[in-house]
Structures are given as structure tokens and as C-alpha cells.
Design goal:
With about 140 residues, the protein is an alpha+beta fold. About 20% of the residues lie in helices and about 30% in strands.
């Protein structure tokens, strides 16, 4: 992706996938806060350095994270970038440039609009675009 498609898009957070909430990495970075269950059944808990890490756990079999863990095991799940213009505008611009999303715009773990870019459009890794400022 080129700079003109996303503009300035700083790191918002990093998502780490694990089969359970018992992750030694999270313990090293600090206790995680309240766990949220997303509509997809995925459980999310933010932790560490100003809650810049997100622990992503399948809340039930068959969730996207469950499938990710089956294929790749625990580890980096996604990198989230902050977008400071309406996310729908950015998504339209990306789609016009041939970049696929991995689903619709939905609320992120902290309720801001977010969308995942399909790994086929990002060199094989999952990128989340999150609109606006973090509250944590």
C-alpha cells in the first residue's frame, strides 16, 4: 500500500492470538483489563504498554481466531493502524485501488469503527484500520 492511500496511519495496537487468556507474554507486559466478547465470538483483552497490545482468544469453536490458531498457532494476529478521516471514505479509496477488506466496517474492541484488510492485499498479514483516537 502506498502512502497516498492511507496517509499518516500510526500504530494503534498489535493483536496477539492465543488459545486461552493464560499467555505468559501478556503477564510480562502487565495485567490485562476487562475481556470483551465480540459479535464474532472472539474474546478480546487489552494489556501492556498503555494497552497497545490486544489478546485475541477464540470464545467458541469456529471463530476466525480459532481458524487462525489452527493454521498458524499462537502469535502475532494483526497490526492495527489509526485512521484520522472517515473510515468509509478510506475503505472506498482502498477498494478502488483493488485492496480487499476481510469484512464490513464494524465496531472495534473499544467500539470505534474498524475494518480488517484481507491478507491477500497486504502481503500475507492481517491489518486492521481503526478510526479515530484511542480512549485508553
Amino acid at each position: 500500500m502506498s502512502d497516498e492511500l492511507l496517509g499518516q496511519a500510526p500504530l494503534d495496537h498489535v493483536g496477539v492470538a492465543a488459545p486461552t487468556h493464560d499467555l505468559r507474554f501478556a503477564t510480562l507486559l502487565g495485567n490485562h483489563g476487562e475481556t470483551r466478547v465480540m459479535p464474532s465470538g472472539v474474546e478480546i483483552a487489552r494489556f501492556g504498554f498503555d494497552e497497545r497490545f490486544e489478546l485475541v482468544v477464540p470464545g467458541r469453536p469456529g471463530t476466525p481466531v480459532d481458524r487462525f490458531l489452527e493454521r498458524r498457532g499462537s502469535g502475532l494476529h494483526h497490526v492495527a493502524l489509526a485512521i484520522y478521516e472517515p473510515l468509509a471514505t478510506v475503505v472506498d479509496r482502498l477498494r478502488a485501488a483493488g485492496i480487499e477488506t476481510a469484512g464490513p466496517i464494524e465496531p472495534s474492541s473499544d467500539a470505534r469503527p474498524s475494518v480488517f484488510l484481507h491478507p491477500s492485499s497486504t502481503g500475507g498479514f492481517l491489518v486492521e484500520l481503526v478510526e479515530g483516537e484511542r480512549t485508553a
